[in-house]
C-alpha cells in the first residue's frame, strides 16, 4: 500500500509513520486552503495571512487524522489486538493491525472509536470557534477553527460509509459477522459493498470531469479507485490468512538453501551466486554456523574495482528481525513480514539461532494458488 515511509514519533507505544505520498496531499491541501477556500469565505485578508491559515489548517488536519487513528489503535490494544503502528498516506491514515479482530464485538468497538474521536474533535473545534467569535479572536484564528470543525465532520461522514475497509464498512462487517458467525462471508459482503461504492465514486469523478471540475473529478476518481482496490485487497488478505493460518514456516522452507562462505570474495560472490541464482539475500555460513546475511544492496556500495579486495565475511551483517523468522512461526506471520519489508526471501532460524533454511515468497503463493484451485477457498 505504501511507497516509502518515515517514522515521525512514537506515542502510547504506537509508532507514527508518514508515507511520501502524504507530502503530495499536504501541498495540495495547503494550496487549496490558501488560494481557494479561505479567500472565498474570509474576504480582504493579506496573502500572507491566507498562506499561514493554509499551513495551520493542514497541520490541524494532520493532527485530526492521527487522533482518529490513535482512537482505533488504543481500543484495539485494549481488546487484545496487536497494532503495528499508524501510517499517513495520500488518502488519509490507517492503523495497521497484524491480524483480524478476535471477534465481532472487538471489530465493532475498534471501528466506531475513530468516528467518535472525530465527532469529539468537531464539537471541540466548533465550540472554540463560537468562543472566538464571542471574545473577539482574529478572523484567521476563527477561520482555521471553523475549517477544522467542518473537516472533522467530513471525516465522520465519509468514514461511516458502509464500504469496507472504511470504518462504516468494518461496523457493517462486525454486525454481519455477529449474525452469521462467519467472518469470511461477512468480509465478502462488506468488500462487495466497498467495491460498489468505489465504482460509484469513480463515476462521480468522471461526471465532475465532464462538467468542467477537472481537479475535483480526478480526486473523486482516484479515491474511488483506491477504495475499490482496498476492498478487494482486504478480502484477498483474509483468504490468504485463513489458508495459511496454523501452517508452520518449516513446512514451506527450503531446508538445504544456497549459503555463502565468509572467505568468498565479493567478485566470486557476484559471479557465482548473484548472477547464477538471482537472489538478493544470502545467508553467510561457516561450519554450519550462521554468521550473518549479505545482500545485493551491500554489494552495490562497494566499487567494482575493489571487489577482489573484499570478502563476503567483511560485508556480512547480523541478520535482523526484518529478514529472519523462526522455523516454528506461523506462515501468516511470514507473509505479513515479507509484505512489510517487500522481501521475496526470509532466512529461517531454529531455536538455537542456527540456520534452518530459507523461505521463498513464491512457494507461499504457489501453495495459496493450489489451495484455491482444489478447495475453492
Strand order of the largest sheet: 1-2-3-4
By oligomeric state, this entry counts as: single chain
Q: State which percent range the strand residues make up.
A: 5-15%
Estimated structural class:
alpha/beta
Major β-sheet annotation = 4 strands, mixed
Annotation, overall tally of beta strands: 9
Helix content: 55-70%
C-alpha termini separation: 24 Å
Q: Secondary-structure element sequence? A: EEHHEEHHHHHHEEHHEHEEH
How big is the Rg?
25 Å
Stretches where pLDDT is under 50 for at least 5 consecutive residues are none
General form: globular
Q: What's the total helix number? A: 12
Mean pLDDT: 84
Number of domains: 2
3D architecture notes:
The chain is α/β, with parallel strands linked by helices and 377 residues long. It has 2 domains: 5-244, no CATH class; 249-375, CBS-domain. Helices cover 60% and strands 14% of the residues. It has 12 helices and 9 strands. The protein has helices at 20-41, 47-78, 104-135, 139-159, 167-180, 183-210, 214-244, 266-277, 296-300, 312-315, 331-341, 361-375; strands spanning 5-11, 14-19, 83-89, 92-97, 281-286, 289-295, 324-326, 345-349, 355-360. The strands form 3 sheets. A 4-stranded mixed sheet has the order 1-2-3-4. Helix 1 crosses helix 2, helix 2 packs parallel to helix 4 (139-159) and helix 3 packs antiparallel against helix 4 (139-159). The model has no long low-confidence stretch (mean pLDDT 84).
Amino acid at each position: 500500500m505504501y511507497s516509502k515511509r518515515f517514522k515521525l514519533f512514537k506515542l502510547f507505544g504506537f509508532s507514527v509513520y508518514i508515507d511520501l505520498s502524504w507530502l503530495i496531499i499536504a501541498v495540495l491541501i495547503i494550496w487549496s486552503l490558501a488560494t481557494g477556500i479561505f479567500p472565498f469565505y474570509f474576504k480582504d485578508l493579506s496573502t500572507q495571512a491566507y498562506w499561514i491559515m493554509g499551513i495551520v489548517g493542514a497541520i490541524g488536519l494532520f493532527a485530526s487524522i492521527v487522533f482518529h487513528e490513535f482512537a482505533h489503535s488504543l481500543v484495539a490494544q485494549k481488546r487484545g489486538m496487536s497494532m503495528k503502528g499508524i501510517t499517513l498516506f495520500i488518502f488519509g491514515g490507517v492503523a495497521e493491525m497484524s491480524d483480524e479482530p478476535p471477534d465481532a464485538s472487538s471489530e465493532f468497538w475498534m471501528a466506531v472509536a475513530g468516528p467518535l474521536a472525530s465527532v469529539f474533535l468537531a464539537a471541540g473545534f466548533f465550540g472554540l470557534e463560537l468562543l472566538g467569535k464571542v471574545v473577539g479572536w482574529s478572523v484567521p484564528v476563527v477561520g482555521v477553527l471553523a475549517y477544522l470543525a467542518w473537516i472533522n465532520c467530513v471525516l465522520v461522514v465519509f468514514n461511516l460509509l458502509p464500504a469496507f475497509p472504511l470504518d462504516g464498512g468494518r461496523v457493517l462487517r462486525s454486525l454481519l459477522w455477529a449474525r452469521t458467525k462467519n467472518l469470511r462471508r461477512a468480509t465478502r459482503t462488506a468488500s462487495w459493498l466497498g467495491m460498489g461504492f468505489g465504482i460509484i465514486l469513480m463515476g462521480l469523478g468522471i461526471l465532475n470531469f465532464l462538467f468542467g471540475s477537472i481537479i475535483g473529478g480526478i480526486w473523486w476518481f482516484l479515491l474511488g479507485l483506491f477504495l475499490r482496490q482496498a476492498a478487494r485487497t482486504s478480502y484477498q488478505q483474509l483468504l490468504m490468512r485463513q489458508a495459511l493460518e496454523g501452517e508452520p514456516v518449516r513446512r514451506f522452507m527450503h531446508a538445504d538453501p544456497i549459503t555463502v562462505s565468509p572467505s568468498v570474495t565479493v567478485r566470486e560472490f557476484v559471479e557465482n551466486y548473484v548472477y547464477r541464482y538471482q537472489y538478493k539475500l544470502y545467508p553467510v555460513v561457516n561450519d554450519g554456523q550462521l554468521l550473518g546475511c549479505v545482500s545485493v544492496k551491500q554489494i552495490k556500495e562497494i566499487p567494482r574495482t575493489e571487489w577482489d579486495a573484499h570478502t563476503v565475511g567483511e560485508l556480512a551483517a547480523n541478520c535482523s528481525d526484518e529478514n529472519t523468522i523462526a522455523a516454528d512461526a506461523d506462515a501468516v506471520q511470514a507473509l505479513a513480514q515479507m509484505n512489510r519489508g517487500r522481501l521475496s526471501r526470509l532466512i529461517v532460524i531454529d531455536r538455537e539461532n542456527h540456520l534452518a533454511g530459507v523461505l521463498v515468497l513464491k512457494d507461499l503463493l504457489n501453495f495459496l494458488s493450489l489451495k484455491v484451485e482444489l478447495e475453492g477457498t
